Amino acid sequence: FTFNGSSSYLSVPNLLSVPITISGYAKYTDQSKSYNTFINGQPHNTIAISLNRNGAGNLVVYIGNGSTWTGTPSIDSSTALTVNTWYNITYTCDGTISILYLNGIVVGTSPHIPSGFGSQNFFIGHLTDSVSSSEYFKGSISSFQLYGRALTAAEVSQNFNATRKTYGDLSCWK
């Protein structure tokens, strides 16, 4: 799917709980945006995964309890992402630890566990919270997957290796 950065997003029924894995490929095309949100959970402040935090290009995860964020951010990959490049992003949480993977490699962990999942939808490509209600992803998101369990590191790596050639030469990550 291609997102225009101003109004396009996907709404996914909120059937999520912990344990969970969120995975997909993303390519953002606008570094001037403060947040290019890959996924955002509702009600406000359950989980948000964003590319290009404050223009720095970092991949970050914000984790909350349904009313407030527990960290600012909870996981920061400290890895500058390049505009117009495909990345495999995977987030897992088994109920004891949250793990962020970039192209099959762990780039950050947090003891924070998302909670407060409600009956409202999740948004792919749109950040909706009390601060940034108009932040939209600009770029493409593909092969989006949700699992009702935390994939292991071996499974995350296996999934990345099985699909990475579809998105160009990602060999520099292995």
In short:
With 174 residues, this protein is mostly beta strands. The chain has 1 helix and 14 strands; from the N terminus they run ββββββββββββββα. Strands 1-14-3-8-9-10 form a 6-stranded antiparallel beta sheet. A 6-stranded antiparallel beta sheet has the order 2-11-4-5-6-7, with no helix packed on it.
Distance between the termini: 26 Å
Number of DSSP E strands: 14
Instruction: Report low-confidence residues grouped into runs of 5 or more.
Output: none
Oligomer: single chain
Structural classification: mainly beta
Kindly estimate the percentage of residues that lie in beta strands according to DSSP.
35-45%
The rounded Rg comes to 14 Å
- Can you list the strand order of the major beta sheet? 1-14-3-8-9-10
Number of helices: 1
Shape: globular
Please tell me the overall pLDDT. 82
> What share of the residues lie within helices?
under 10%
In sequence order, what are the helices and strands, one letter per element? EEEEEEEEEEEEEEH
Largest sheet: 6 strands, antiparallel
Describe the structure.
The protein has 174 residues and is mostly beta strands. Helix content is 6%, strand content 41%. It is built from one helix and 14 strands, in the order ββββββββββββββα. A six-stranded antiparallel beta sheet has the order 1-14-3-8-9-10. It has a six-stranded antiparallel beta sheet with strand order 2-11-4-5-6-7, with no helix packed on it. Strand 12 and strand 13 form a beta hairpin. It is globular, with a radius of gyration of 14 Å. It starts with a strand and ends in an 11-residue tail after the last helix. The mean pLDDT is 82.
